[in-house]
Write the structure tokens for this entry.
Amino acid sequence: MNDEEKLNRAIGLTQVLRPPKQALATFGVTSIEYYLVTQPSYAENIAEEIVVRRGLVVANRPHIVTPYYLSQVEGFSADARRYLSRLMVEHGPHAPGIYYTYRNEPGGLDVTSDSLPLVLERINKEIDEKNNPLAAVIQGADEVWDVSLMKFIFEMTRNSFGANVHELNSRGLLKVDGEGVPQGARLRIEEMFSQLYRGNIKPGELKDELERWGLFEAYQDRFLALFRK
């Protein structure tokens, strides 16, 4: 089985058996506790062995971006940049969108000889006892289990997108000013100035953000003033 076949198999096997009861937060960090249940590839013909991986998917506060902003972010391939160029032609360089970032914090791993129904019953009971609305149970492929986790993250993002956009729109945060910068991005810059003043972020983080929006010259005096005695 080649890599493409493994990927397609993992996507086909992945099922979200218990989705979180809440969507991703629009104005804060969301921590989703996951239980990823798989059967080892060596045990495909043996119903008695199940692997349970636990961890947290931490979704950072969604950021408002534009095609122009993304075109200034490093780390994209040439193909990705061609796609961004197409977006700028089709929708304009300043069309606002939402950018989600995540990190996975793996927890424990258990291997059990109990049957799948018994394992799922035990997990669901544990979640019910914790009363955690941000817990999920996923059944996936063992060899490429992180693909199963990524599919879950994608579906979670897609299901949350509408509510996030509605909340941002209701506060006027997607409204773009004359310089092509959404109001939400202006507020993020103000937050970053405050964080830099308090020493919570490094100067380079704010400088990079300003440059991605093409705003460093506009904020340069204010930025440099933070370092004057």
In short: The mean pLDDT is 90. Residues 172 and 183 are 7 Å apart (CA to CA). The helical segments are 3-13, 67-71, 78-91, 116-130, 145-170, 183-197, 203-212, 216-225.
